[in-house]
Write a structure and sequence with these properties.
It is built from 13 helices and 29 strands. By secondary structure, the protein is an alpha/beta fold. The chain binds adenosine-5'-diphosphate, phosphoenolpyruvate and manganese (II) ion. Its EC number is 4.1.1.49.
Amino acid sequence: MAKIDLSKYGITGTPEIVYNPSYEELFEEETKPGLTGYEKGQVTELGAVNVMTGIYTGRSPKDKFIVMDENSRDTVWWTSDEYKNDNHPASEETWKVVKEIAQKELSNKKLYVVDGFCGANKDTRMAVRFIMEVAWQAHFVRNMFIKPTAEEQENFEPDFVVYNASKAKVTNYKELGLNSETAVVFNVTSKEQVIINTWYGGEMKKGMFSMMNYFMPLKGIASMHCSANTDLDGKNTAVFFGLSGTGKTTLSTDPKRLLIGDDEHGWDDNGVFNYEGGCYAKVINLDKDSEPDIYNAIRRDALLENVTVDENGKIDFADKSVTENTRVSYPIDHIEKIVKPISHGPAAENVIFLSADAFGVLPPVSVLTPEQTKYYFLSGFTAKLAGTERGITEPTPTFSACFGQAFLELHPTKYAEELVKRMEKSGAKAYLVNTGWNGTGKRISIKDTRGIIDAILNGDVQKAPTKKIPYFDFEVPTELPGVDSGILDPRDTYQDASEWDEKAKDLAQRFIKNFAKYEGNEAGKALVAAGPKL
Ligand SMILES: Nc1ncnc2c1ncn2[C@@H]1O[C@H](COP(=O)(O)OP(=O)(O)O)[C@@H](O)[C@H]1O
Ligand SMILES: C=C(OP(=O)(O)O)C(=O)O
Ligand SMILES: [Mn+2]
């Protein structure tokens, strides 16, 4: 095993480094007798280990900062009064201080170092080195990132380094211009990330996604917050955009298709490729029968987070006393039907926008025109579901540009441009699928949504009779095999269709108001006609 010297990262006095541990070693480390608190892993009845991630059980977007320097100043899409987002600027002085806090925290102790790739394509992937002091965090990144081969490991030169100092705090955060004792800070020039005072694994995973979202579009590659799969011949790719909890992982894991990836992808001249080596599924109320493949992926080497487990290792997936954002990470090969050995498929032919509409207005499926595609992609209307972000405790309607605003480092129009360019070339069709609520007050069933996805992917939706939905001018099918026809027009799910009408007008108004931020230029103004009208 290659030796590693951490003094070049300003980390000194390290008595022991567990470098690129095997799954066996990770298991030993995270369940070692004597571990206490949030470091302690518990073996469950399914063989997977469960850990508690502490106070932070979801991302903390208010604590996300990017160093503003000569490279980032004119490229990063900074938060502003006109368009608030999660790209808060940090000064170079602040960077110096937070990096020192991390170096100090990580010095003089036993550490875990894991190397992995972000991006399945050799030409454009990022080699990432994670340095941390908690064993299960090493397990998490081993699951989520692409594992180098023995030869790649020998010659591993990191392009990017992540310092995870989850046990440290930024005490003088006010004078540093930070938001709290917790900080997640990126430096796109030195290519480093520092994490302080949060243990949530998602900060490492979505952190590197944010960095891919910075570097990939600058190379002309579409960078997408989506899952992806392809047919059993590996020829007919579909991508599923959606904010957290809208169904990317659930719906892309489909025994009739080969999974490419469940969350982060690029689309270049050769097609759609995964950034990751694993999946990160929500497990709240996980049901063996409606999500059998995810359920079966929960075994030895998978890592559960914040799930309620009794002293005998029995799991209660229904319990949300810690958080609704209970999770499992597993290497992608825990799913049987996957593209191997490289998570890659040809250019997408179907592009699906998943929106979990908490208002119950959007039809379960709408066929979008090319202009509507651009409008609804930039709008990114959906609900933030409970738990994934700090402070969100119930489904909260939001406009999250490109269905992943929290991870966009460039202006949303850049992602739209790259996506549309790729879609035009492949002739991809686009659909808006509501995986959220309707007039029944309940969430649309996974069974109905799966039926809708099947109909999109096998072409039935193109043959179905359709009608137009007022205000939005959505074209919706009125009958689809395997789907309850009573839900396809959302008005039919209300006791009184005028209730839908009221809500629809309100939602249309919200779209119009939100889109104003794109109307500053001709291209944005031209799209208004594709949006809702009152
Ligand atoms: N109609 C539906 N379609 C997809 N998921 C649904 C639906 N109804 C309920 N769910 C639940 O919503 C959650 C979707 O989570 P997940 O697929 O992990 O989202 P993402 O990968 O987009 O973050 C799962 O817990 C799933 O069981
Ligand atoms: C892990 C996250 O989301 P997703 O469910 O999209 O993977 C996240 O937003 O922190
Ligand atoms: Mn997911």
